[in-house]
Each structure stands twice: as C-alpha cells, then as structure tokens.
Design brief:
Helix content: over 70%
Number of strands: 0
Number of domains: 2
Radius of gyration: 21 Å
Low-confidence stretches: none
Distance between the termini: 71 Å
Shape: elongated
Strand content: under 5%
Mean pLDDT: 90
Length: 108
C-alpha cells in the first residue's frame, strides 16, 4: 500500500509541475493538455492496479497488470523518441536550408 501512496505523491508532483510550467508559459496549451492527461491516466492506473491485474488475467496473460503497463509505457517511450528524432531531423534540414540561403545572399 505504501508503494501506491508513494507513486500517487509522485504523480501529484508531476501534475503540479506541469501546471506550474503552463502558468509560467514554458509549455504550450497542447503540451500542457497532453502531459496533464498523461499524468492523470498514470494516477488512475495506479489507483486501479488490482482491477487491471484482474483484467489482464482474464485475457489470459500470465503477467501482472503492472508488467503490462510497463510494456505499454516502454512502447510509448520509443514512440515519443521516434517522434523527437523526426522533429530534430526536420529542424536540421530547415537550419541547413536557412544557412545555405543566407550564405548565397551574402555572396551577392
């Protein structure tokens, strides 16, 4: 039971931190919404971990609910890393084009 309370305290910390970042305008409204919903869902998963265990067992998996949630979170992390890599490549391409354009215009 201590682990659940500890995990919920961590979730509340991240919810507060997300709200604080939005208040200071360090994150956009969409980013705030994404992360706020994400941490709310994490909190709900923590609260209902026993029901998730029962659901997973009902599906025939031998793993516990926390294992399934861990696998899903790792998949989400890889997906977000993939999106970040694509965004970085796009930024690098834009910077290269901008530098090329500035260089050509300065030679004239």
């Amino acid at each position: 039971m201590f682990q659940i309370y500890f995990a919920l305290i961590i979730v509340l910390f991240f919810l507060a931190r997300t709200y604080w970042q939005k208040k200071k305008k360090k994150v956009s409204r969409n980013e705030f919404f994404f992360w706020f919903v994400f941490w709310l869902l994490v909190g709900l998963f923590i609260l209902f971990i026993k029901k998730i265990d029962n659901f997973v067992a009902g599906l025939g998996f031998s793993a516990s609910g926390i294992d399934v949630l861990s696998y899903l979170s790792i998949a989400l992390i890889f997906y977000l890393i993939f999106k970040i890599i694509i965004k970085i490549e796009k930024i690098e391409k834009n910077v290269t084009e901008l530098v090329r354009h500035i260089s050509i215009n300065n030679k004239k």
